[in-house]
Amino acid sequence: MYANEAFTLTNVKSIAKNDIDAKLSYIITENGLLKLVWNLKVDMKGSDNWFDTAVCAYSGNVLSLIDWVADALYNVYPIGTAHPLDGRRALLVDPYPKNASPLGWHQTKSWNSTQTKGNNVYAQENVDGGYDWANNYRPDGGRSLKFDFPIDFKKSPKSYLDAAITNLFFWNNVMHDLFYQYGFNEVSGNFQEDNFGRGGLGMDGVIANAQDGSGTNNANFATPPDGQRGRMRMYVWTQTNPNRDGDLENGIIIHEYGHGISTRLTGGPANSGCLGFGEAGGMGEGWSDVFAVLLRQRPSYNRTMRFSMGDYSNGGIGIRRYDYTTNMKINPETYGYIKKSGYWGVHAKGEVWAGILLESYWNFVDKYGFNENWYNKFGGNSMFLSLVVDGLKLQPCRPTFVDARNAILQADKVKFNGKNSCLLWKGFAKRGLGLKASAGGNEDFSMPTECS
């Protein structure tokens, strides 16, 4: 026998998920002896264990057994918390559903990592603002996958880079896993390195750059067609002293990832040009704001409350013209506003679309209640989100507000036999997207007779 000799065990389906590679190598035992061993990497069938094993080449005794799978721990701002001034971080253990991330967040079929990278996302610093991300710095949780790093807000964002990247990694995975439950899966063009034979194109986990040096006071997400990696750039914000890090404002991460969702679902995953401008581009911004507002909600919240976008990073001032609320005195925007001076841009149009959708959201919550567990799709909040995602799939490329409205109504017909149509119509009509509204901001406040 010679070191580096190797072969593959193929008749192992009863114990392993895949063929087992065996290779001769040397290890040093605890008492300092050099031993020739067979090194076996066994991804166990029927369990989460993936063993890296060293078996003595002569006696057959197991000399080393390491389980690559650990209970990962993350200190992050969880669902229901918008940013550091809205709540505290929480220590979360293995917060992923098996159907969306069957191998967890730190491995693929080909490799495993103790850093902030895995099948769904590569999260790393990019302080120099370049495009070479693969070898950039990432926090390392060690064998125990413990990503618990301190934050001192009296210091600059650079001082808590590990915590920032961890939060960015966590939320990219949450967005992947959560929207998987609502139909943003492999066939629909989600972001995964390995699609596990479920359809769609792989090799497109998100590249998520923390404290990206290419800009400040903003963030962006590039969404190429399925099979090419999306890229998220998160920036430091300079409106306060010390500066603040957008990586800690969950709403910004959610908003940016939301662009990947709406772009891949509208017109199909092979087409990334359906939400580029006009009303369609505006709705792209609006859907992202809606996702951000929804995932900060708590059971005690109600429709009269006000919700800002970017207010933590921007020093306490929201980055939209109006806070999101159903109170028309605070946020007066209606569909006709998109014809006004100053509403030509996609972000301004997006505010209008988000405000319209959130009216219907609160109608659902008022009727069906709020369920904190977004993953199980029960409760008015989850029902509404499911219709929005289904509507993205049903609407045409380059949709108008009217097209998107009709797609959501059609989704309700398909999923719930149309029983919620009046909840939707009341929200649409309140802000000018009523029965007789037409593309271009021609508003109408009427509803079908059965809803009046």
TrEMBL record:
InterPro entries linked to this entry: Fungal_virulence_M36 (IPR050371), Peptidase_M36 (IPR001842), Peptidase_M4/M1_CTD_sf (IPR027268)
Cofactor(s) needed for function: Zn(2+)
Record keywords, A-Z: Hydrolase, Metal-binding, Metalloprotease, Protease, Secreted, Zinc, Zymogen
EC number(s) recorded for this UniProt protein: 3.4.24.-
One term under GO cellular component: extracellular space
CDD domains the UniProt entry points to: M36
Top EC class for this record: hydrolase
Signal sequence bounds: none
Lineage of the organism: Eukaryota, Fungi, Fungi incertae sedis, Cryptomycota, Cryptomycota incertae sedis
GO biological process, one term: proteolysis
Protein known as: Extracellular metalloproteinase
UniProt subcellular location: Secreted
